[in-house]
Design brief:
The chain has about 700 residues and is of the alpha/beta class. Helices cover about 55% and strands about 10% of the residues.
């Protein structure tokens, strides 16, 4: 069976990996991707490093050494990062040599705090390039207006540059101009222009995220069915159209007469690099921003989940120059409904740069915290006293390494659990929780903006989640754990048809000032539909536009989506369909209520990303908390200790009840599961039987 990642290279598109961490390098995983998938390069950014350094133990040994040397936080950060970049560059050097400098690059970004400082950017780019001392390193410079002269000067100095944060075609043209000017200055002075590489990183999916939000709002408030259909027909198209038209500018510039002189002297074109190509909308294909942007002289840098998806079901064909007339027409259609791509892309660049600054600052704070933890000796989070079971658990952990279990889990390989195809299909469609934090990071700003609109009008005093089972478990945990926050609506959870419970919750609200969240994965669950019909009827008697008091969270294509559209709900959130109910905490089912009640969802997702890194496939099983915990639970259960006692701090007592459900649902389907026990009063060891863990 052919590998789509390899086939893409044959069409002139290079695949780079948008992720880096120490374990990726030392475990041999990066080399394996080069050998098996013909991977051609790696990109990094402050957010990636923040998650890698703070979310894993990869760096602890070097951190201890650096801390003992008395280095500042800034110096520690740079030492950690340049070490990774240097190692990756060395691994990629054969690719660089084999492609004569076309590929084989690893990128390192200048401090995002310098995005609007031309001279500061020039000097930092020069310093970092010299410090790394490798030909196959690119320094990333943002495409802000202040960055353009820095790009030109850096190219003039012979520094390879990855220009980042490009969202608009106009900005792309400015970037190409800066690159060419830098080369022309060298040529004028008789300096060589060959083997100076640059890519223009054009951000893709975020354009759809921004424009779709506006289109969806307009469609919900459309006055006619035709207008609604026209607006919905534009969804999910702007990002690809924007990139395709940028590629046409690339061809004009780099295959025109001006660049021909430089090309004759050995200059490389500045390839378009498609960045931000992970799909955020569950309605869309998870390879949407790969399959539709395949063309020669391009690069696509993809995050881990998208990389796995391409390998599994990517479609390889030249698509980058298809439907160009429709792409041009789309922007005319968007302008006709008062959506200006220029305004959208300018805001995206500004917000993107601000987000990188936040990640950079968070990373500095996290390094400082890790430094303090190391100095105090508090750095071991997972400990186990296993007694006679220690040896069998240790053997099980080693077996997971031999069986490549974590890699197969992250690749969503259903064969790990079942052999028959019917079961495999069900399992594979229930593993979306593994990668949902990455998906949700792309929409967190939208959720925050939605919350701010709700808060600013001060129309709603309460938010009521109406659901059952998995769709309401996480909101209830959040409600009990975080309580109320000033300036935010109070969260209530209705997940019972018991008349007394129903009346108790109903008595707490003013119906006209309550926002009802109807949560149902299937869209057909009886109880949420009953709640919806009852509350909608009650609001209809009191308000002219009752749908404005309702939000729906459901899977794409469900009856709930159709009903919510018909009744003009304030908002419809379509959840990734490959997530089971109880595993939906970090999807819209958990994050929408969390945002509305005032939980810091950015921090919540950041912490989730850290544990993703801690449990990554590249972490050896003995250091992987997920592998270790799984091995302990499994081996003890097989030995008869199949009653798992969950002890939680009173402040997070509801979390234990939720974990109880997760474990029971995961292991109890075939009569041989683990029985979790939560909420039990803590006793001395002597009161527990030999079946307890």
């Amino acid at each position: 069976m052919s590998n789509p990642l390899v086939e893409l290279m044959k069409l002139g598109q290079s695949i780079w990996y948008d992720n880096i961490r120490r374990a990726l390098l030392v475990s041999g995983d990066l080399q394996k991707k080069i050998d098996e998938d013909d991977l051609r390069g790696v990109t990094s950014n402050p957010t990636i490093f923040e998650k890698a350094i703070t979310g894993s133990t990869d760096y602890d040994e070097q951190l201890r050494s650096l801390v003992s040397s008395g280095l500042s936080v800034k110096d520690i950060y740079e030492a950690l990062v340049t070490d990774d970049i240097g190692r990756a560059a060395d691994i990629l050097k054969p690719v660089y040599d084999r492609t004569d400098g076309l590929d084989g690059y690893i990128s390192l970004e200048v401090s995002p705090r310098l995005a609007y400082d031309t001279e500061g950017t020039i000097e930092e780019a020069d310093r970092l390039f010299k410090r790394l001392g490798r030909k196959n390193v690119m320094i990333k410079i943002p495409a802000a207006q202040e960055g353009l002269p820095a790009i030109e000067e850096s190219i003039y100095r012979g520094i390879n540059i990855n220009v980042t944060m490009i969202f608009s075609i106009e900005n792309y043209q400015q970037v190409a101009e800066a690159f060419i000017k830098g080369l022309e200055r060298r040529a004028t002075e008789g300096k060589p222009v060959d083997h100076i590489a640059s890519v223009a990183s054009f951000f893709v999916s975020r354009v759809d995220t921004a424009i779709d939000t506006d289109l969806e709002y307009k469609a919900r408030h459309a006055e006619t069915a035709d207008e609604k259909a026209r607006l919905e027909g534009m969804l999910g198209r702007a990002a690809v159209a924007n990139a395709k038209l940028a590629y046409q500018k690339f061809k004009e510039v780099f295959h025109g007469p001006r660049f021909a002189d430089l090309k004759a002297k050995g200059a490389q074109v500045q390839r378009c690099l498609w960045a931000s190509t992970g799909t955020k909308n569950p309605h869309y294909s998870d390879v949407l921003y790969v399959d539709n942007l395949i063309g020669p002289e391009t690069v696509n840098t993809v995050p881990p989940a998208t990389y796995t998806a391409i390998r599994d079901h990517g479609k390889v064909a030249l698509t980058l120059e298809q439907s160009l007339d429709q792409c041009r027409a789309l922007f005319e259609q968007l302008r006709a409904v008062s959506i200006d791509i220029k305004d959208v892309t300018e805001k995206l660049q500004k917000d993107g740069l601000a987000a990188f600054v936040t990640s950079f600052d968070t990373l500095a704070e996290s390094i400082e915290s890790k430094r303090d933890a190391i100095l105090s000796g508090i750095h071991e989070r997972l400990t186990a006293s296993l007694g006679s079971y220690a040896e069998t658990v240790s053997t099980a952990i080693k077996e997971t390494d031999k069986g490549d279990v974590m890699r197969r889990i992250w690749r969503k390989d259903a064969k790990l659990w079942k052999e028959d195809e019917a079961h495999q299909k069900i399992i594979k469609n229930a593993l979306g929780w593994l990668t949902v934090p990455d998906q949700m990071i792309g929409v967190e700003d939208d959720l925050i903006q939605f919350t701010d609109r709700i808060r600013n009008v001060r129309e709603f005093k309460h938010v009521m989640v109406c659901g059952m089972g998995g769709s309401s478990l996480c909101p209830e945990v959040l409600r009990q754990t975080f309580g109320e926050r000033d300036g935010y609506p109070r969260l209530l959870v209705l997940d019972s048809t018991d008349p007394d419970v129903f009346s108790s919750i109903a008595d707490q609200i003013d119906i006209t000032h309550c926002l009802f969240i109807i949560s149902s994965k299937s869209g057909t669950t009886t109880e949420p539909l009953m709640f919806y019909r009852y509350w909608y009827d009650q609001v209809s008697k009191r308000k002219e536009n009752p749908g404005e008091c309702f939000v729906a969270i459901t899977d794409p294509g469900t009856k709930m989506e159709a009903d919510a559209t018909r009744d003009r709900f304030k908002r419809i959130f379509l959840n990734p369909p490959d997530i089971g109910g109880r595993y939906s905490a970090l999807s819209y089912f958990g994050l929408v209520p969390a945002a509305l009640m005032g939980v810091d969802i950015k921090k919540l997702l950041d912490r989730a990303e850290r544990i993703v890194h801690a449990c990554s496939q590249v972490v050896p099983a003995g250091d992987n908390p997920g592998t270790k915990l799984g091995a302990i639970m499994a081996e003890c259960a097989k030995a008869g200790r199949d009653k798992l006692t969950l002890i939680t701090d009173p402040k997070i007592s509801s979390f234990g009840l939720w974990v109880e459900q997760l474990i029971a649902e995961s292991t109890g389907k075939e009569g041989k599961g683990i029985v979790p026990i939560a909420g039990e009063s803590l006793g001395s060891p002597s009161v527990y039987g030999n079946d307890r863990l």
